[in-house]
Hints:
Layout (H helix, E strand, L loop, with lengths): L3 H16 L3 H8 L3 H9 L1 H38 L5 H40 L1
Amino acid sequence: xxxxxxxxxxxxVIAALLCSPSYEVAAQQSGVAKSTIHRxxxxxxxRAQYEVARxxxxxxxxxYLRHTMTATVQTLFSIVQHPGSSDMARIAAGRTLLEYAFRxxxxxxxxxxxxxxxEHLSLKEIL
Length: 127
């Protein structure tokens, strides 16, 4: 079991890993050797802590993005609608809106298809 000092170092490494582009930068930021970080990442317990922290960070970012989507779409739509916007700006905003709308529809369709496949497979298991 890690002592209080090592626990704090491990938490610092996890925080640095979440914010750093590489293990080298994470090592510099946390003050822990890169080789130690690699060794800790081989530990199932440390790896699990890191994965939980990564998932929480990702969920936070996704929550923020969900909250900003409506305003972003409204902004793009206002650029498309605004007569004072340049043609290039209106085209770029319109293209962006269409691209994301089509991606959203494709993703929605894929999720529905996957749900039907999973339901079909679970019914086969019952029979």
